[in-house]
Specification:
Elements lengths: L14 E8 L1 E6 L7 E7 L2 E7 L12 E5 L7 E7 L2 E7 L8 E4 L2 E4 L3 E2 L3 H5 L3
Antiparallel strand pairs: 1-2, 1-8, 2-7, 3-4, 3-6, 4-5, 6-7, 8-9, 9-10
Length: 126
Amino acid sequence: MGKGGRDDAIDEGKVILCCALGCFNLGLYKAFDAIGCSGKAGLCCVNMECCCKGGAPYLFPFGCLGLRCECDGCSCINAQCHTCCLVGSAAIPCNKEVPVALVVLGLDLYPKMGCCKNQLEMMVRE
């Protein structure tokens, strides 16, 4: 389950961003449940989701493939794909799951400077 109680296959607190430009990012998923694959794509509030990994939430109506109505911060288009330890995400406009970021080869430039921070650490305002 993702952070904040969401039924989500990816916990953004375990994603270390490798590359990011605006509302698109690619990261490494450092979790024991990384084996498998999952994905979701949405237009407005309707998301199509798939998940083929152990411990994943049941997706209605087919178990590993389903539709969900989700208001995730008013994104018109959103997508997330996970295969083993790689996670790619995009949203237009950006939202809580896909924040605005600038990262080059693990060097975090925006919103915080650093190196190999996870996605949630980068978003905490001090």
